[in-house]
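sorry to bug you again but im stuck and you know this stuff better than me. theres a chain ive been looking at and ive put its sequence and its fold in C-alpha cell form underneath. id like you to explain what the C-alpha cell line says about the fold, in plain words if possible. anything you notice is useful, everything is just below.
___
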Amino acid sequence: MKQSYLKYMLTHDKIYRKFFIVAVSLPLLALFGGLIVGSNPGFFSHLFPPCSVKLFLGVNCISCGATRATLALLRGDILTAIYYNPLYIALLCWFIYLYVRLIISLVRRPYRPYSPNITIPWGIAVLVIIISFAVIRNTSLYQTVFF
C-alpha cells in the first residue's frame, strides 16, 4: 500500500515532524488565546500598557494602535483595525501570507523548505515605507483625517 507523502515524512523524519507540529500548533494556540481575549476585551484592557513613545515624546510611534487593532480584529471589526494602525494590518497580512506559503511547502512533494527571497532593495523599500508612515502619521493632516 502506497503512503501519502505527508504521512511518510511525519513517520520517518523527526526534524520534519517537530517543525510540522510547531507550525500547525502555533495558529491554533493564537486562535485559542484570541477567542479568550476577544470574548471579553474589557476584562483584559488593563493589562495592556500605554505607549511609552507617546507618553514621553508626545508623538505616535509606528506601532501605536497595534494593540487596539488586534483587539478589533479579534472582535471581527476589520475597518476599525485598519483605522487604528494600517501599517500593522498590512504587515500582519504579509506575515500570514508567508506562513501559508511555509505550510504549503511542508505539504508539497518533494519537500523543499520555503525561504522568502527578500533582497536588499525590498528591505530598503520596506524601511522607507515604515519611516514614511512614522512621519506621515504625526502630521496634522493624518491626525484630522484619522483621529
The mean pLDDT is 79. The CA atoms of residues 31 and 74 lie 9 Å apart.
